[in-house]
Amino acid sequence: MKALLIGTHLFTFLLVPGTMYVFYDKVEQLHADRARSPFVVLLGLSLIMVKIMSEIGWHIEQDWYYKEEYNILNMGFYFFLCSGLSAWAFGLRLNAGSDAIHTKVPIYIEMSAILVALTYRFWQLLRTPKVLLFPFFSVGVNLFFISLLDKHQHDAFLNPLFHMLHDAAGTELGIFIIAVLTYTSPLLADAAAPQTSNIKTQ
């Protein structure tokens, strides 16, 4: 059974290069159909290869017995998987004449799923409804100004203004709020107190 399990993971080293060859072989047709960038599609598949290497390293560390635990290899697996799928979706985005918002739907869905999981884990850690401010600003406000950017992309004043606000009042503000909540959390202060007292008594 273990050999079969290892084989299913190693099969990816045949599957993904084969898929890359298919897209490479069809590059002219993809351009003709207005695909944005076949190169980015191949980059996405390359990142999925890195993903499987991280996953195999993680499984070797666990002696190929699955346990739900998090380490750097596990994080690498999720990071390169999300990055690879996002690049794949972005590379297949159609060029001018298509609806850019609709072609980004797979990326928005993926981002939303990641943010839901991340927000839930922040709530588990901090136990305060204020963590909902994180997705509100990092996703909601962020995408609001991105939509305004799309409508005013040729305006010399509004374009840079909305660009700055989508970062400063969106992503950056959400991260800042989480940093403040973590730093001021009484739960984390209570957890650190016994360790501090133990160090002082030694």
Keywords:
about 200 residues; mainly alpha; single chain; flat; about 80% helix
Q: Average pLDDT, to the nearest integer?
A: 80
Distance separating the two termini: 50 Å
Q: Helix proportion of residues, in percent?
A: over 70%
Q: Beta-strand percentage?
A: under 5%
Number of E-type strands? 0
Strand-and-helix sequence, N→C? Answer: HHHHHHHHHH
Structural commentary:
The chain is mainly alpha-helical. The protein has helices at about 1-10, 10-25, 25-30, 40-60, 70-90, 100-105, 105-125, 135-150, 160-185, 185-200. Helix 2 runs antiparallel to helix 4, helix 4 (about 40-60) runs antiparallel to helix 5 and helix 8 runs antiparallel to helix 9 (about 160-185). The longest helix has 27 residues, at about 160-185. It is flat.
List the helices and strands and how they pair.
Blueprint (H helix, E strand, L loop, with lengths): L1 H9 L1 H14 L1 H6 L5 H24 L10 H20 L8 H4 L1 H22 L6 H19 L6 H27 L1 H16 L1
Helix pairs in contact: 2-4, 4-5, 8-9
Give a summary of the structure in a few sentences.
This protein is mainly alpha-helical and 202 residues long.
